[in-house]
Structures are given as C-alpha cells and as structure tokens.
Amino acid sequence: MSFSSDTKSELCKAPLQKNCCVLAELYGILLYCRSFTPTEVRIITEHRPFAARVEKLMKKAAGFGFDSRSADDAPGKRTLVLTDREKLKKLSEMFGYDSLRSVAHHIDLGLLEEECCRASFIRGAFLAGGSVTAPSKGYHFELITGHYSVSREVCAILREMGFAPGSTSRGGNYVTYFKQSEAIEDILTTVGAPLAAMEIMGAKVEKEISNSVNRRMNCDEANLEKTVNAAQRQLRAIAILERKGALDELSDKLREAAVLRRDNPELTLQQLAALTDPPVTKSCFNHRIRKLTELADQYAEKDQRER
User: Fold this and answer.
1) DSSP per-residue string spanning 168-233
2) 229: which of 115, 126, 236, 305 lies 20 to 30 Å off by Cα?
3) Of residues 81 and 213, more confidently modeled
4) Residue 154: closest CA among 143, 146, 162
5) What is the mean pLDDT of residues 220-248?
6) 238 with 292: CB under 8 angstroms?
7) 67 burial class (0-12, 13-18, 19+ CB within 10 angstroms)?
8) How far is CA 51 from the centre of its chain?
9) List of domains in the chain
C-alpha cells in the first residue's frame, strides 16, 4: 500500500452525515473522475474502499446506484458505470446542468457555500483524481482533472479556504498542487486525514533530526581534521627546534610546552594545558605553542637563506 492509498483509506472512513456534504463530495468525485457527461458516468479505481464509498454517496445523494460495476472479487481496477437516461438526467439537474446539452464543466459554487461542503468537495476531488507523495520521498499533493475551468475554479475555492495552490498542465490534464509540507498537512487535516498529516509531520521531524546529526558529524570531522593538522604543524616545529638544539635554550614554560606537545601528540590543547605545572588555560598554552612555531619558522627561514 502506498502513502497516497493509505490516505484515501483514511478519508473513506469519514462518516456520511450532512446531506449537503454528501452532495458536495459526490460533486468533487464526478468532476475529477474518468467521465461525467449527459450520456455516461464512469469511475475507474483500484482503490476498493473508494469504490465502496462512492456507491454509498450516490445512493444517499441521488437515491439510486450505478447501472453496472465490477464484481467485488474481480482482480484489478474497479469500474462503476451509469448510463440510464433518467438517472443521468436527475444527476445533471442536481448539479445545475442541462441534461439535454453537453455538460459545461463549471463548478456550481451555490452547492459549496459552507466550509464543511468545500472541504467535502476537495475530499471527493482527491479521492477521484488526487495523489500525495510519501513524505520519505518528498512533499507533493495534487488534484488532476481534464477540465480547465474546473481546475481554475478549484484553485479559487482553495484560496478562499486560506490555501495558496500552484497550477500547471500535464498530458492534456490540469493539475492543482502543493509542494510545501505545511500546506499539505493543513489540506489533509481539513479534508479529513489528520493521521496522514501527522505522518508527514513526523517524517519531517525525523529528517530535521537526521540533517542536524549529519551537520554535527560533518562539523566534528572538520574540527578533528583541523586539530590533527594543527598538531602535525606543532610537532614539525618542535622537531626543528630539537635538531637545532634550541629546546635547552628556551624558558622553562616554553620547554615544558614543547615536551608536552611532543610526548602527547594525540591530546588537544585543552588537555595539554591541564598537564602543565601548574595547570594553565587553553589560551595560555596555545600562546606558548605559537611562540614555539614562530621560533621554528625563524630557523627554517634562516636555513633557506643560507642555502
């Protein structure tokens, strides 16, 4: 089962209560299904809970069922078909269409005056022509219809609901979409899929934690590399001073710092500072090490000039 299918299963559990919302949800389904004309309604889906729900919606809203449908135990996609003229006439009139002419696919906003009805309409549109990407792969929610005016009007409805959808066309169809995780969470909650919305929230938190851990690990690796490189430079400087016999000429504090660094190449400056007698701060020990490297650089420059 895909995340999109699981989301539709959750939506199909929404109770059929108010008649206005039942009509609105069926309306969304019809405008986003395979075919809705004066001569035929055809719904094709591989999602069995949706197929069962649309039959209930049709009977409750219109008072009749489909003329034919795939057997419950038939493999593959389910097909629901309505071709009876009288049923189609009644269905067209329910949604303000003239059953004697081609259906002009525009949304009758009078059927969607209430917020609950608009949410039900979008739920129906998603069940029939929508999908949502699994949050582990990204964030994408879309509604697809073959009717330009419907797609444009759905965008307007969503904006009235407080959303900011994007729109595009693809393969002769018209797509209304969201790519922001917060917007997808809100739209799923609004249409009746809070569990799917929470799954997106949870996946986002996991990603943020993972990214934070990776950033910290990368930072730690970079700091470790800097520490190792710095220690190597310090050891090379002390080796130069040893070859020149300069260690014995150093002050007690600088000689102590040189010996501690040489004998403990794996320790940090903080750890080395704690080993001095008496212990000093990291900044103080770093100052002594810097003095040693500057002195070694002077010897190296002198050797270069004499060559």
Assistant:
1) EEETTEEEEEE--HHHHHHHHHHHT-HHHHHHHHHHHHHHHHHHHHHHHHHHHHHHHHHHHHHHHH
2) 305
3) 81
4) 143
5) 82
6) yes
7) middle
8) 29
9) 3-192 (3.10.28.10), 231-306 (no CATH)
Contact assessment for residue 107 and residue 150, using Cβ atoms and an 8 Å cutoff: yes
Q: What is the end-to-end Cα distance of the chain in Å, rounded?
A: 76
User: For the chain, what percent of residues have pLDDT higher than 70?
Assistant: 96
Nearest to 107 by CA among 149, 45, 165, 162: 149
The β-bridge relationship of strands 130-132 and 68-69 is: unpaired
Distance CA(46)–CA(158), nearest Å, equals 27
Whether residue 144 has pLDDT greater than 90: yes
At 283, list the tokens.
């900044």
Instruction: List, edge to edge, every strand of the sheet that includes 41-45.
Output: 35-36, 41-45, 78-82, 68-69
Determine the pLDDT at residue 307. Answer: 64
Q: CA 235 to CA 237: how far, in whole Å?
A: 5
At 84-109, the pLDDT tens digits run 999 998 988 888 876 555 555 788 88
